[in-house]
Write a structure and sequence with these properties.
Blueprint lengths: L1 E4 L32 E6 L14 H7 L7 E3 L5 E3 L2 E7 L4 E6 L13 H12 L13 E8 L2 E6 L6 H6 L8 H4 L3 H6 L11 E7 L3 E6 L20 E6 L3 H9 L5 E2 L4 H9 L3 E7 L2 E8 L9 H10 L2 H9 L30 H10 L4 E2 L5 E3 L2 E2 L1 E7 L7 H13 L4 E7 L1 H10 L4 E7 L5 H6 L18 H12 L7 H14 L2 E5 L2 E7 L2 E2 L16 E2 L2
Parallel strand pairs: 2-11, 2-12, 18-19
Antiparallel strand pairs: 1-5, 3-4, 5-6, 6-8, 7-8, 9-10, 10-11, 12-22, 13-22, 14-20, 14-21, 15-16, 16-17, 23-24
InterPro entries: Peptide/Ni-bd, SBP_5, SBP_5_dom
Protein name: ABC transporter substrate-binding protein
Family: Belongs to the bacterial solute-binding protein 5 family.
């Protein structure tokens, strides 16, 4: 028995949740769209690799959504709709997906999209050599092109997040000819290397400076009920890599650019007050920015020390101060906009409590102090090292870490923050040579918790489980969540897991990322994905 899914597509994603006027929908086009023209998008992070399957950087997913389409599309409410697949069947046991593909689609290199091409993309994603971060949790069995218009994907076991993963840009369909050029070429991502079926082609790439997209005039296959049909409105999009906040924001204020990524919250109001621009925002789905405590070595191998650290920090004021009230404080290892499983009962359940924190440290034996005021035990100072991957630093996360360190000093807890290059950070993480590190993960499914908490992915094995949790109950909840094919059954797994993380203080959720996008008033049609970052430029147009 199979379930046949043929669903009317919703319009291409989300609302711009907040803007200069505060009214929802300010990012949605008003008036008749204008065809032609170009925009400059000033962004702060240049991807280290432009293959959407390989890296975990949000920057790659944002940019390459313009180049690569997916088989299906997920709307702002989490529902799935046809895209390059016109329909799909799911076997009764949830292990076999049969995609019926759209006809008349061509890659940028002129070759025809078919089931063989879709199979090549799945094989590339699942290939260990690709090192796709999200492939580790996928029980991929095989992809078979049974005929030119039919792709059959078999899983080794039921996997509830499968359709969401298929809709995500990490499984954007790539040209087999481009894939054949190898991983180095895919990462380089220049013209002829990044080849998809998306609304824009890669026209030029100068590393460290800019990436240029040109309209793909043949494009006529957006999700079925998208905002418009046919080719994109814009002729060209130039992406400029401007890591300095002041330069990036200034480029839009001066008219040198029309969009600015990641506007600093503390300058957003000033930016808007200058006139001619607005700030649109969307909340991230997935896991919030979180400090993970290494439970496999002192001092955080002691649950009381972890709990003291968690409850002794004034997270509310730190987040409010650094982000000028534009980013909400986090309470759970999932963000509130993550579909299906967020546990709202955790909100306000673990506020700062200095009395409790000091008592827990006393009970843990850290009841003496040295000349500098730090707690000691058996002649050792209560100290921890917080390591950060500087190569993916954003949103002043180094400032947040230092603010936490300053806060911890009031407890008699010495925290040293170290920014490391990517290679050094990876080596330290794998060696377990750290006490605290941080990350956030953005995707609209609670399965993001799998990569962060499964024993398969402890940091000392090269994974992103930085708390190094190896707990059978945690693994059971994660397995239950990934195999619950009915969405209403998933909270039974993920809500207990969220509570366990907070109760055991294996992590300290700090804030929910908000994507703040500065937009010139001359630009309309900006939209966000369900995961909470800008969608492709397909719907964007200029008024002048």
């Amino acid at each position: 028995m199979v379930r046949r899914l043929v669903v009317a597509a919703a319009s291409v994603t989300l609302l711009a949740a907040c803007s200069s006027t505060g009214s929802p929908g300010d990012g949605v086009a008003s008036g008749a769209p204008v065809r032609g023209g170009a925009v400059v998008f000033a962004t702060d992070v240049e991807p280290t690799c432009l293959d959407p399957a390989a890296p975990s950087q949000i920057a790659t997913q944002i940019l390459q959504r313009n180049v690569y389409d997916s088989l299906i599309y997920q709307d702002a409410k989490g529902a799935f709709h046809p895209w390059l697949a016109s329909s799909w069947d799911v076997s009764a046991d949830g292990t076999t997906y049969t995609f019926h593909l759209r006809d008349g689609v061509t890659f940028h290199d002129g070759t025809k999209f078919d089931a063989t091409a879709a199979k090549a993309t799945f094989d590339h994603f699942a290939d260990p050599a690709t090192k796709a971060p999200l492939a580790g949790s996928l029980p991929f069995g095989s992809a078979t092109a049974t005929d030119p218009s039919t792709l059959v994907v078999r899983l080794k076991s039921p996997f509830a997040p499968f359709l969401q993963l298929v809709s995500f840009s990490v499984l954007g369909i790539q040209s087999p000819a481009a894939l054949a050029k190898g991983q180095a070429a895919l990462c380089a991502g220049g013209p002829g290397a990044a080849v998809g079926t998306g609304p824009f082609t890669t026209a030029a790439y100068t590393k460290g400076q800019s990436l240029t997209f040109a309209r793909y005039d043949a494009y006529n296959w957006p999700p079925e009920s998208s905002a418009h049909q046919g080719a994109a409105y814009l002729d060209k999009v130039e992406v400029r890599f401007l890591p300095e906040n002041a330069i990036r924001v200034g480029a839009v204020s001066s008219g040198q650019a029309q969009l600015a990524a990641n506007v600093p919250p503390v300058t957003a109001a000033v930016f808007e007050a200058g006139g001619g621009v607005r700030v649109l925002s969307a909340a991230a789905a997935g896991t919030p920015f979180t400090a993970y405590l290494n439970t496999k070595r002192a001092p955080f191998d002691d649950v009381k020390v972890r709990q003291a650290f968690q409850r002794g920090i004034d997270i509310d004021n730190i987040v409010k101060s650094v982000y000028a009230g534009r980013f909400p404080r986090a309470w759970s290892p999932l963000t509130p906009s993550t579909p299906y499983s967020y546990d709202s009962t955790l909100e306000n359940s673990w506020p700062q409590d200095l009395t409790l924190a000091n008592r827990l440290l006393d009970e843990a034996g850290w009841n003496q102090k040295d000349a500098q005021g730090y707690r000691t035990k058996d002649g050792r100072r209560l100290s921890a090292t917080w390591v950060q991957n500087s190569s993916v630093m954003r949103e002043q996360r180094d400032v947040v870490a230092q603010a936490v360190a300053d806060n911890a000093k009031k407890l008699g807890f010495e925290v040293t923050v170290q920014g490391l290059d990517a290679g050094t950070f990876s080596a330290r993480a794998k060696a377990g040579n750290y006490d605290i590190t941080d990350q956030s993960n953005q995707r609209a499914d609670p399965d993001m918790l799998y990569n962060v908490w499964s024993s398969k992915f402890v940091a000392t094995k090269g994974g992103a489980n930085y708390a190094n949790i190896d707990d059978p109950q945690v693994d059971q909840w994660l397995s239950q969540g990934t195999t619950a094919l009915q969405q209403q059954d998933r909270p039974a797994a993920y809500k207990p897991l969220q509570k366990w993380v907070i109760d055991s203080a294996a992590a300290v959720p700090i804030y929910v990322p908000q994507y703040l996008l500065g937009v010139s008033n001359a630009v309309q049609g900006v939209q966000f994905t369900v995961s909470g970052y800008p969608d492709s430029f397909y719907t964007v147009w200029r008024t002048k």
